[in-house]
Amino acid sequence: MRLAALIKSSDDPVYRYRLHAFEPELRRRGWEVSLHCLPKKWQTRLPLYLRLWPASVVVLQRRLLGRGEILVLRRSATRLVYDFDDAIMYRSSNSPKGPYSRRREARFRAILEAADVIIAGNRFLAEAAGCYTDPVKIYRIPTCVDPGHYLLASHERESPKLQLVWIGSASTLRTLGGFSRHLEAIASAISKVQLKVICDFFPSEMPIPVVQCPWSAEREASDLATADVGISWMPDGTWSRGKCGLKVLQYMAAGLPVIANPVGVHCEMIAHGRNGFLAETPEEWAEAVQHLARDPELRRAMGRVGRKTVLEGYSPGRWADTFVGVVSGDVRTRNSRCVLGG
Predict the structure, then answer these.
(1) Residue 261 is part of a domain; what is its CATH number?
(2) Model's pTM, two decimal places?
(3) What single-letter DSSP state applies at residue 333?
(4) Does residue 218 belong to any structural domain of this protein?
(5) Cβ contact 236:263 at 8 Å
(6) How many helices (H) and strands (E) does the chain have?
(7) Which of 154, 155, 181, 240 is most deeply buried (CB count within 10 A of its CB)?
(8) Average pLDDT over residues 240-265
(9) To 10 degrees, what angle do helices 282-293 and 296-313 make?
């Protein structure tokens, strides 16, 4: 059996955490997996689709295609699986045009109607997809992180020193700008606090000392493990509710407690007071950071709970069997709790 994956790139987090994570299990079961990076122009994508035949399954990740292009792809795919982990039917929270886009919505509907199976990264996305196609073919499989690939934070740093960490891409870095009042409150409450930013781009001005840490696939696990607390903040909106919490899972896999605002999947992943804190106002954020700064053992305990959260609910080992069943059309998977409809 052959699976052809249409991806953005081999470094893309969507591929790394939503398909590559399951490749060992696919190969163990006899699947041959081939990767195809999608060109930017549709004219150069069409010949690629024709070369996919005779793949048993074609997995398309996130990309929204025009109807004509979908028809060509559909003819080359015995079974077409569409996997997405963002609210791609909307514009981003930062768009001056607002979230709703007729073009995006039309393309989203077209690919959902054409696909045999849809894999959504969270419940909000699965329910949104159900408005455009038969819910019985929609499955919810979260973004998965393997804790075994992450070093465990030692939490040896003691108060008043504390290093927060944020990991992400240049496109999501701008969310820290909407978080500046919270960082100001933290800097006022703790004199020797730092923010490590793991990214391929860095903010020019921040109300808190920034440690610049260029992102590297080889170093990200160790860079996270040398911090004390992971942070995540998202503006409250439709785009944010489509996020699947990758950075939160990475923090937890590294044994870090997490502080985040109560938006979207943050509320599902973070058990307040057990593996982190949900905080909304600048004062609540400052209080949560102070609490963790003065108690290294609390950070260790929360980190252990967080790592267990990932292992039991968001790891490849937990979801590999479901993923393989969904892409292969194994009817037994329809009894799995990942099914949204049917």
Answers:
(1) 3.40.50.2000
(2) 0.94
(3) G
(4) yes
(5) yes
(6) 15, 12
(7) 155
(8) 98
(9) 110
